[in-house]
Amino acid sequence: MRAALGWHPLTVTEHSLDWFNDLPADQLHVHLRACNAADRFVREVAAGRPYPGAADLAATAEAVTRELDWADVAQALAAHPRIGERVDGESVEARSSRAEQAAMDTAQDEVRTALADGNRAYEARFDHVYLIRAAGRSPAEMLAELRRRLDNDEASERVEVTRQLAEITRLRVEKLVSDS
Predict the structure, then answer these.
(1) Which residue of 39, 112, 116, 147 is 20 to 30 Å from 84, comparing CA positions?
(2) Is 95:131 a contact under the CB 8 Å cutoff?
(3) Do residues 84 and 101 touch, judged by C-beta distance below 8 A?
(4) Is residue 157 within 8 Å of residue 73, measured between CB atoms?
(5) Whether CATH 1.10.3330.10 fits 3-178
């Protein structure tokens, strides 16, 4: 029925938990990958179906993400844009990134420039994109966190990145399903 209504997995953002639990595996994987691009995350969360509630699904998504090894985290990072870069397209990932970084639309030029410079310094130091849960944070807060985290050693930063990825993943999964 959804196909008859023009439904496409990359154009819908919120669904019921029943929809999630009943979704064919190939479509489920597309939606989960938009929440976290790590193959292990997709496999483990998909294997947990059926979920009794949206909160259970969100908690599982966060827990699975926190347990990813660094290679899996790096795979997920490859799908994330830099803070302050506007992502084009209508995929779930692109729309999620734009919504999460909406505060950047109001950033002052000095903050934008400092974030761009900080992104370059961060990537030179850690060899991956600076990841932070942007939702609910101002551009100035994201910049302050970037500057603070530039002083982290590699092990501490990997812990921080994994924690941020878990927060982002949970928010995206919560947006994907509801208990309705």
Answers:
(1) 39
(2) no
(3) yes
(4) no
(5) yes
